[in-house]
Amino acid sequence: MGMPEDLFDKAVSLLKQAKNNIVLTGAGVSTESGIPDFRGKGGLWSRYDPFEYGTMGSFLAKPEKVWRMLATLLEVVDAQPNEGHHGLAELEQMGLLQGIITQNIDGLHQKGGSRNVVEFHGSLDTFTCLACGAQFGLAAVKDSSLPPCCTVCHSILKPDIVFFDEVIPEKVLTLTEQMLASADLLLVAGTSCQVQPAARIPFMVFNKGGRIIEINKEPALSHIATVTLQGSFSAVMRELVQRLKS
Ligand code: ZN
């Protein structure tokens, strides 16, 4: 165990030295909460063709059909945060973490106690009527029959998540840029950084001299990471929090 311990020590000193630590998370941080990686084997996009179910074009053409896929997504909102999510919340409380940018739409960081969270691909917390602009909360949608309809104009509601053919909302990009502006360390957890534009985020930090720490079962950023902690999100976070406290 000599080498892994040294890597944890190195990660701890980097986290303590940096002035502004930000985290970027992806599907891998939620798998231990029972949410399979949408892009992985048996994941959502192996069961539903993303071009038929995951685009704004498909939603506008056949919203009832797209809601068959969205109904399975609504199940993920009952998932519970794991030890890794709680660990990130602890780091924030300790003043060692200034913000989280997540590609996940499951709301688990907030459930786990994190406060400063940017949901890069939106969330299942709110739903918007594309016809009249009215907004509805998750509770209203869960109580209604599917597909849920606007109580004002009866059009089918769309969850405030970013479909594949949509751009990231301006507001979200601004929040992300603000968070990254002073970041001198980025902890990248549970993402293989394959989905643009989120995949650029590690390089934005790296290119201006910031350090990268990667937590992943299958590391993907070894070429730019100062430290790579290979393993499950919850196990790595448990060890990291323990050492940061001692
Ligand atoms: Zn409406």
Write up this protein.
With 246 residues, the chain is of the alpha/beta class. The protein folds into 2 domains: 155 residues, Rossmann fold (3-Layer(aba) Sandwich), CATH 3.40.50; 81 residues, 2-Layer Sandwich (SIR2/SIRT2 'Small Domain'). The strands form 2 sheets. A 6-stranded parallel β-sheet has the order 3-2-1-7-8-9, sandwiched between helices. Strands 5-4-6 form a 3-stranded antiparallel β-sheet. It is elongated, with a radius of gyration of 19 Å. It starts with a helix and ends with a helix. The model has no long low-confidence stretch (mean pLDDT 94). The site of zinc ion (ZN) has 8 residues, from loops.
Write the layout of secondary structure elements.
Layout: H1 2-17, E1 21-25, H2 44-47, H3 50-53, H4 56-61, H5 63-74, H6 83-93, E2 99-102, H7 108-111, E3 117-119, E4 122-129, E5 135-137, H8 138-143, E6 157-161, H9 170-181, E7 185-189, H10 201-207, E8 211-216, E9 227-230, H11 233-245
Parallel strand pairs: 1-2, 1-7, 2-3, 7-8, 8-9
Antiparallel strand pairs: 4-5, 4-6
This protein binds zinc ion.
